[in-house]
Every structure is written in structure tokens, then in C-alpha cells.
């Protein structure tokens, strides 16, 4: 268990100190300076823990925590700036729906599954289910939102079917396990909360996995199955 002084530092009070000397100075009292008559000596006394001011961080630990806090802030700012849909003029319903879910899927609050049925560059009809969260982490979505590329299922996605060649592929992803030996058809079990997403259009959607069918001007048939992650206690 951490002592009160260290716990307070962990709670974010280090942000108010620009340097380690500033941190030490905050623990020096006017009485200390009166008796020691030397600011540098007073800092050394505090750093050595010779005063009853609670546990004091060593210089290396102070700088390490300051660096970690800064890295965390930069990471959060970077995540906010990396929304591929930011600033894009999205006229298609499907792309707007993806943009609305981008932040939640990047942060892990939602693990959406995308269904797309359309034609590939060879004119062959293909369909499949895509782990949106996984694809966002592995691929740059800016070209999709800007209209430079079309988002299509791949043989590396959760499922893929080529209606011309009859190629059928299914793969587990970082977030889902594909269950095919089920009487209800293909089911995707979320690896985080162990709840399943039933993509059968005839099945009733679960409370935490609503489905949305969308009319798109650039895709033949699309749907989104949102899976809101339940916390496991």
C-alpha cells in the first residue's frame, strides 16, 4: 500500500511542479530556512527524508513520473487528432455512421462489426463481416472517409465470401472469436466481455448489441452491429 504522500503525487499533484527543485521547495517551511539558513541545504534535508513531511520522491522517480504523465497527455491528444473522419464532408449514410462510431471503437468502448455486400475491383460480388475496431488499428481509414478508397471485406476479416469463386474464409480477430458450429449460424463472441453477437437478421438483437441497417449510395448492402462492452467485475 502506498503512503499518503506518494498517493497524492500519483493523483496528479506533480503537474504543478516544473522541476524537482520546485517539488522539494514545496516541502520546505519558513522555519526550515530560518534554522538552516541555506535553501540548497534545506532541499537536501528534505530529499534525504530527515523531516517529517511524509515520504519524498527521489529525483529519478519524480522525473520518471513526470515523463510518464507527459507521455500520457501526448497520447490522449494524439488519439483525439487521429480521428480519420475529422473534418471530412460525409454525404453517404454509411460513412457518416462509421464516423459517428470511430472514437468509441478507437477507445474500446464499442466493438462494432460491419457487414458489407458489394463488388470488388474484378466485378465479383463479395460479402463479409469486418471487426471495425481491429481494422481501425491496423489500417489508415482516411482514404475511406475522403472517398479515395472503398471499404470492402477482405479474406483476413472475420468472414469473407466470394460469390463468384465460392471462396469462404473466417478468422478470429483481436476482439472476436468466430463460432461457426452453432445451430443459429455464425456467431461472433467478444473476447473482452465474452458476450456474443448474433448477426442472423431473423434473430432478435441483444440489448448490448443493437444492429443498424443503412441505405448507402456507394455500397449495395451494409449493416452495423454495435457491441457495447460490458465491464467485467
UniProtKB/TrEMBL annotation:
Compartment(s) of residence: Cytoplasm; Nucleus
Entry's Gene Ontology cellular component terms: cytoplasm; nucleus
Keywords: Cytoplasm, Nucleus
Entries under Pfam families matching the protein: DUF4464 (PF14713)
Highest taxon above the source species: Eukaryota
Main location: cytoplasm
Function in brief: May be involved in spermatogenesis.
Protein name: Cilia- and flagella-associated protein 299
Protein species of origin: Silurus meridionalis
Amino acid at each position: 500500500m502506498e503512503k499518503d504522500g506518494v498517493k497524492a503525487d500519483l493523483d496528479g499533484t506533480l503537474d504543478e511542479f516544473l522541476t524537482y527543485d520546485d517539488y522539494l521547495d514545496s516541502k520546505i517551511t519558513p522555519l526550515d530556512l530560518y534554522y538552516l539558513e541555506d535553501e540548497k541545504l534545506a532541499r537536501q534535508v528534505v530529499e534525504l527524508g530527515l523531516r517529517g513531511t511524509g515520504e519524498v520522491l527521489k529525483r529519478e522517480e519524480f522525473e520518471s513520473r513526470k515523463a510518464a504523465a507527459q507521455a500520457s497527455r501526448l497520447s490522449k491528444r494524439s488519439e483525439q487528432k487521429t480521428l480519420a473522419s475529422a473534418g471530412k464532408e460525409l454525404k453517404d449514410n454509411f460513412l457518416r455512421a462509421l464516423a459517428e462510431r470511430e472514437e468509441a471503437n478507437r477507445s474500446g468502448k464499442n466493438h462494432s462489426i460491419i457487414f458489407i455486400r458489394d463488388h470488388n475491383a474484378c466485378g465479383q460480388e463479395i460479402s463479409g463481416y469486418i471487426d471495425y475496431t481491429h481494422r481501425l488499428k491496423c489500417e489508415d481509414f482516411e482514404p475511406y472517409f475522403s472517398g479515395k478508397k472503398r471499404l470492402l471485406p477482405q479474406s483476413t476479416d472475420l468472414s469473407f465470401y466470394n460469390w463468384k469463386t465460392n471462396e469462404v474464409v473466417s478468422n478470429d480477430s483481436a476482439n472476436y472469436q468466430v463460432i461457426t458450429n452453432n445451430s443459429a449460424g455464425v456467431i461472433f463472441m467478444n473476447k473482452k466481455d465474452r458476450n456474443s453477437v448474433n448477426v442472423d437478421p431473423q434473430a432478435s438483437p441483444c440489448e448490448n448489441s443493437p444492429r443498424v441497417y443503412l441505405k448507402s449510395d456507394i455500397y449495395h448492402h451494409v449493416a452495423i452491429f454495435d457491441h457495447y462492452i460490458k465491464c467485467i467485475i
